[in-house]
Sequence to fold (777 residues):
Amino acid sequence: MTAAVALTAPGASPRARGVRRLSRAVRARWRRSLQTRVVVTTLLASAVVVGLLASLLLHQVGSGLIDTKTRTSLSEAQSGAAQAQTRLDNLKSISRQAVDLELADLVQELSDRGAAGSLYSVVAVGTSPDSNAFSSASVEPAAVPGDLRRRLNTGPGPLYAYAPVPDGSGRLVAGLVVGSVLRTPVGLDYHLFHLFPLSAEAQTLGLVQRTAVGAGLVLVGLLALIAGLVARQVVTPVRLAARTAEQLAAGRLEERLEVRGEDELARLATTFNVMAAALQRQIRQLEDLSRVQQRFVSDVSHELRTPLTTVRMAADVLHEARDHFDPDPRRSTELLQAELDRFEELLADLLEISRYDAGATDLEPEPHDLVRLIDRVLDQTAGLAERKGSPVRVHSATPGPVVAEVDAVRVERVLRNLLVNALEHGEGRPVEVTVAGDDSAVSIVVRDHGVGLQPGDAERVFTRFWRGDPSRARATGGTGLGLAIALEDARLHGGRLEAFGRPGRGAAFRLTLPRQAGALLGTDSPLPLPLQAAPASARSDGAAVVKA
Amino acid sequence: MRGRVLIVDDDPALAEMLGIVLRGEGFETAFVSDGDAALGAFRRERPDIVLLDLMLPGTDGLEVCRQIRAESGVPIVMLTAKGDTVDVVLGLESGADDYVVKPFKPKEVVARVRARLRTHDDLEPETLTIGPEADPVRIDVPGHVVSRNGDQLQLTPLEFDLLVALARRPRTVFSRELLLEQVWNYRHAADTRLVNVHVQRLRAKVERDPERPQVVVTVRGVGYKAGPP
Fold:
């Protein structure tokens, strides 16, 4: 979904982008907040319900008003028509002229009555085409709906219809037209129409409508508010639980929820606390176990080292005096001496590895110049380099010192292990050490041109006691733990140690460390990977990458 | 006779072996295997140097170290089975001058003992001053006396050597490595915490306000030099 948005975005107008951003924000809010969902749902549902109720109410009120008005209007019109009929029946002279005069008079009279309070206006129309029409001042006879007139021809009346009628000021408004038939002595029928404007009712209905809409809106708003408050009552403890869970996850195991009341939320809190306590217990147990392990390592260290020291010194004394011995005891003394060295190294490495396993290691980072560290390690390994006949070349890809916050002891050990490894497997060819740094990371590559690594070996070189070529293993020194410890040292710094190699073309190890202690390392490194220039298809021949 | 060494170690084989090696180098040796008896043996034997195992039955090594330091400046070299930060720093803070980590080679111990017993043959009269000009610390080098305003300051031989090394070249900034070489006689890089801890101990004795040192000044990122800054 995000991808689609990103794809269409470049061509969209700023407004469309703004709308999209808003809709994304709304959607996010909807997804993330239970309270929002409850409030919005309540708002929509109550709006629908209130809308239905209001329209029902308005309908009822409207028809009630019209019904009443229609009833009163009918009786008003009937009484008007009855009065007119009586006057016509009592007419003294029976002529069309007299009838017309009387009708004009009647219409005027009724109009005057109706005009008081603009109740109605009146129209009288003859049924024959040549007869005259009479009406109140403000009304045209044509205002009477033709349909009503036709119906009056067939039935006696009174009949009524809803049609636009003029109100007091002559404007056409919704109205009621009531028609009755007047019989005249001259044998000509007239239709008498009362036109009642419904403006008062429309006004009342409008007021009711406005009131209903206003009340409905307030009601919906209040409902939403109530829903928000209710949701909050539920959501607040849930949020609290979430925050406490986060703190627990962050290692603050003593965090607990406050239990209040006896409701479902209280039960949730209680269960949560039980779970937290169980977790804490488990972790404490593991910690205890780890402490026991550390203690054990420390004890073993002490217990083993004391007799070893005695043996070591005894061997040294014998070694010093070997010139006085016969050849066999002399050789034995020499072997004893040499193997003691290996034994000591092995013990030291084993203890170091078990310290890592026990998590009993700590980092003491201080700013150090890696170039100086490399120089120091070169001094320490100069003897080995000379014996192996491999010249070691150091190259700094960045000018000046390459400073990083590292634990010098550990980084020196990593470099020593890498260098010893390179010299041991370098077949007497040159070994290259390259160092470089960028803003966030520093990197050192140790590269040899020796036997290299067999396919798949790059993954295994860091395995404890792993040896590349079993047939030549014992001839080379080392404890078999050097690279495993180097990997742990790199990890402890939050760094990476990677191995690359090809058979016959040598191997390379790249150490990448963050410049600041505790900083996170990106995926790239200040130095490129050597032995990686070959096409990707050649990767299968051992140029595998192992990341720590 | 090159000196008398008191070996405080509960492991009889190691103690005996240390004895053999040290006697081979011309030292006299005395032994004690119990922490509780250590102080008594120290008073009785009056050694020139103490080799002290940190793990002892009875009073532990750190406490023995403090007891001896309370009444004497005799050099103390710890024998420790752990290279762990805490133990080493605790030992140094308890008053030890140096340490060797088991398993050590005989030559290492002998070198450490020799370094601490190194006698200054410079009997030429030499007086040095260090610290602020208004309130200097005076050092009578052949007499091994350090004083300020006529008040004598009690320094251990190691602290004395450290102060003299700084005072002899007042304009030089000494890196920790250089001090390890000159004062402790380490030819290869060693634990620079030795320097840190002993500079603190020295400051506690020679500074008016150890929080704002005037005699031994830190040069950030490099090392230490003689005051005033």
About this structure: The interface with chain A takes residues 11, 13-14, 17-18, 20-21, 24, 55, 81-82, 84-85, 102-107, 189, 221 of chain B (CB under 8 Å). The longest strand of chain B covers residues 4-8.
